[in-house]
């Protein structure tokens, strides 16, 4: 076997070798792409959170209107309700009761 006599021409792996322009350009493009992706992701996240808040607000508004309308519809009246109407309303009232909704 041949014994090494002088210093090696190879650089140790821990030393940073000079990058050729092509590699440097590729790294710059990758960094730009990553930055654009991160920006788009953050923008999408903010839009998703905003849409979620809008949906929650709409749901709360609908629920309030529903509860107000339900109170108006189902408020007891001093008049007697005809039996035929009670028979028609009974399935809907049973369904509301089964779903756990209050009948006021």
UniProtKB/TrEMBL annotation:
Region (Disordered): 1-22
Protein name from the UniProt record: Uncharacterized protein
Source taxon at top rank: Eukaryota
Biased amino acid composition, Polar residues: 1-21
